[in-house]
Amino acid sequence: MARRELLITMTEATLLVEREAKERMPRGATGLTAQSIQSDAFSTPAGVLGVVASSLPSAGAVEFGTRPHMPPVSALVPWVRAVLGVSAKEELGVAYLVARKIARRGTEAQAPFAKAIAATESQVLRMFEAAAVRIAARMAGGAA
Length: 144
Fold this sequence. Notes:
This protein has 2 domains: about 1-65 and about 110-144; about 65-105, no CATH class. With about 140 residues, it is mostly helical. Strands 1-2 form a two-stranded antiparallel ribbon. The radius of gyration is 21 Å and the shape is elongated. The chain is about 60% helix and about 10% strand.
């Protein structure tokens, strides 16, 4: 009874954080990183666990930033086209300049997951407080 209530609440909480993380994820050229964010909640012998994550390596790079490295210029062309709106004639040159900057400084962390958690923390706490009240009421023999 309590585990089921907690699992339902965890599912709602992870969906809330998932939505917020997707909204905060920079769109880039395709939006695939944002689309890759998923959530899941499940019951384990130790309790209920919720996860919000992406399987794409780009999500980690956006969340934590990267150290200086030289990315493939061709991989940056779609981003330059979509985000910077550069003409087809200039996109390769601009992509090279962006790659050089990344080679010198890396990329800055954007932290969409951390920001999503911070933005939803009070809502999630209220959700679990309400679940605790419902569980206590059921244990006391009432209907919540």
